[in-house]
Write a structure and sequence with these properties.
Blueprint (H helix, E strand, L loop, with lengths): L6 E4 L5 H12 L3 E6 L3 H13 L4 E5 L5 H15 L4 E4 L15 H28 L4 E6 L12 H21 L4 E8 L8 H4 L2 H8 L10 H12 L10 E4 L11
Parallel strand pairs: 1-2, 1-4, 2-3, 4-5, 5-6, 6-7
Length: about 260
Amino acid sequence: MKLDGKVALVTGSSQGIGQAIAVHLAQEGADIVIDYRSHPDGAHETLGKVEAVGRNGYVVQADLGVVRDVQKLVAEGIQHFGKLDILVNNGGVDGKNADFWDITEADYDTVLNINLKGTFFTTQAFVKHLIETKRTGKIINISSTHEEMAFPHFTSYCASKGGVKMMMRNLAVELGPLGITINNIAPGAIETPINAKLLNDPIKLKSLTQNIPLGRLGTPEDIAPMVAFLASPAANYVTGATFYVDGGLIRNYHEQ
């Protein structure tokens, strides 16, 4: 297995993509710090799946939009397992579907605080741990095709993911001399609970899948193997890049 002896923290791992990543990394040999904000049952479901493949898990509740929470999340993971080797910044929200001129400060803060500020300060706490313990490590951000591709009526979301893109590029340069790699994975349209409304609307679903060259939505299990690759020694010379896992959507998208 690629990740024997490693410990990975996966934010937002109580459901969807995060849960699939946590389980897949466990299958590759890693122990997992499981983070949730408001779905404890899902987090313990993830824990059960991690333990079912013979690895250890530890559940921590944290609001990624609150700096003291993310610092506690990292600290508790370290305290429980003795170290962290891999950080997967997966937790995030889409925000409100609304015209730009109707977005409130509260709407904006919800999205930017979780998607960008949370990613920034979780990464900072993880990097401080690596520096203090004089070790290298891997950071993988679950971004979105919308770090690059326009998404009308979701401007705050696009701004947050664009920020994650530039944060990753900048940190690749700043952290490279420390032996710490950082990369983004940009999923396209994925079958997750957050997309339940879309999945139950045949007209909108057909319109979207017609834009995807592979002709289908992705699944969380399509994302997880790329995370495992970037977390593994096979990707030791890979940093500062975004990997699109979107069925070709970004190359063929046409706003309806």
